[in-house]
Amino acid sequence: MLFYVTSRIFPGKTFAVICDEKDTIAHAKANMLHILYELGRADLQFRFRFRGEYLKDALTLQDYAVGDSCVVELIPLAKPSAAVSEMRRSSMYGVKNVDTDVMKALEAEVKIFKKREKLLANLRVALWVLGMAAVCAAGTVYWYAFFWQTLFFLFGILKIPSFSRLGGFVGRTGLDQKRFAAIFSVLMFSNLIASLLLALLSIYDEIVDCYMAPGQSAANVTADGGALFGGEEVGVFYGCEHQLWYSAVYFCMDSIVVMFVAAYSLKLWYNFKFEVGLLMS
Q1: Cys staple from 82: which of 78, 110, 164, 169, with CB 3.0 to 4.6 Å?
Q2: Which residues pair with 147 in a beta bridge?
């Protein structure tokens, strides 16, 4: 749900805060504090007021019937005139009047959420690389790898959550972000194992194909590449197959890409453990 916040300290401005109705008031204030951080006003201490009643941090938005599109007032703890003068003083001298631990926690959360935005953006790029790689898999000896790699790509590109530091998770993917990270990590590590095995198998087949079969010596190969068995030319010995070389190189490169994507998915899974207000609480 989305509710709006107004304040006399910020005339003409209305802030949109995204929360769940079961979130506590403290969680909603933490969301507002992130918005104030962007304005350089993270030092502002405030309370929320709705329909003339001050909201207690331990209760939820649902307890106060704060629903979608409701308007909540932001009331500074200081007097308006003092708050305005303090705003000017802080902007001029960079003075912080909020508790140091809270400020450090806020800055730590900002860093975590900025990293989350970057991780998700990089993962989207990596997913499209995997999608193009899946098409290339169709030209390998093990062409059926195209099907599972395409399925993994489609799952990732359709279910990856969208996130912004101020707006939180937006859009509907039908899957919880933590569950997405866990499932996608399992898929990527499964893909990594499969790619490594197919790379080793391709290299093994290439080695076997490049060398004579047991009992076949150089004397058994004719000038035009024919193979002699029992004094008769029974076929042509082609040597190394280009498709096997392509398969070996492809799956080796694919293993490297998938390894990085799997590492990104694990980083996301760990990053998703942090929510707004978790460190500040």
Answers
A1: 78
A2: none
